[in-house]
Design goal:
This protein has ten helices and nine strands. It is an alpha/beta fold. The strands form two sheets. It has a six-stranded parallel sheet with strand order 2-1-3-4-8-9, with helices on both faces. Helix 2 packs across helix 10 and helix 3 crosses helix 4.
Length: 283
């Protein structure tokens, strides 16, 4: 055999081996890409929802600070709504507009009067996957907060609420309610006096008409809910909270026996754990 022929056979064999290697590499690359795609799909299915928190009366968004810290440590994006506290006709559309600005799934959380707001605001919102009520109102269509807060005995916030007249945009007179400096026992008995003084100084008052506006929608009828009962609540009676959560068929109800109305301040780990349970259940 001539050296020329041998050289051609070696080159041909080398080319064949190179082609096989390329095919194998290509197959591996395709498999790798498929695995990566599958991995992305799995990752997308586990995307954490955004947690939107809505405060109630006598408070502002800072009341969620300790709970936010717990949630952010768990990797959740958190947004606090600056609840106007003017009543359903103003507050619900405001929170709805915030929900519309968030892409992806949302777990909507509320405290106290914020519960009335989210019950109205979340109706028909497909991105809201869960409602979490923290010592909150859970009204049905046609109900008012005034009716609910007197349904069971035990609320003591009325006598420690200070009425302050104010002029509305249309020139009529409204009444804002502030929590007085003597309101700790009724509102936040289980936080320090120093913390209560800060809360009382930085509070946002709510319009007294908030108690008379009827609920126009009940999002909990179509969106799963969770609830926390504050066992020593003297703002919304614990019996009322239990009754409202039961009516809403809450998937899980946690009771904190020693908690005052402000459970998100005095028991942030418990509150965050309940929110996390809801988020995991709908993710």
């Amino acid at each position: 055999m001539s050296s020329d022929v041998s050289r051609r056979r070696v080159l041909a064999a080398g080319a064949a081996l190179a082609g096989s290697a390329a095919l194998i590499a290509g197959a591996q690359g395709t498999a790798g890409a498929a695995t990566a795609t599958t991995g992305n799909r799995e990752e997308k299915s586990e995307v954490k929802p955004t947690i939107v928190l809505v405060h109630g009366g006598y408070a502002d968004s800072s009341c969620w600070n300790a709970t936010i810290g717990e949630l952010q440590d768990k990797g959740y994006t958190t947004v606090c709504a600056a609840n106007p506290l003017r009543g359903i006709p103003t507050d619900a559309p405001y929170v709805t507009s915030l929900l519309d600005s968030i892409s992806g799934p949302v777990v909507l959380v509320a405290h106290s009067m914020g519960g009335t707001v989210i019950t109205n605001a979340a109706a028909g919102k497909s991105n809201v996957k869960a409602l979490v009520y923290i010592a909150a109102f859970v009204p049905d269509v046609g109900e008012t907060q005034g009716e609910l807060i007197t349904k069971f005995p035990g609320s003591e916030v009325g006598p420690v609420s200070v009425p302050v007249p104010y002029t509305k945009a249309d020139g009529t007179t409204g009444t804002d309610l502030y929590l007085s400096k003597d309101g700790q026992a009724a509102f936040a008995a289980d936080i320090s006096t120093a913390d209560f003084r800060v809360l009382q100084a930085t509070q946002r008052p709510f319009d007294a008409d908030s108690f008379v506006f009827p609920t126009t929608a009940a999002a909990w009828k179509t969106i799963p809910s969770w609830g926390l009962v504050a066992g020593q609540d003297k703002a919304i009676p614990p019996a009322c909270e239990r009754w409202m959560y039961g009516r809403a068929n809450a998937r899980k109800v946690v009771e904190v026996p020693r908690s005052s109305h402000v459970a998100m301040i005095s028991h942030p780990k418990v509150v965050a754990a309940l929110i996390t349970d809801a988020a995991r259940a709908v993710s």
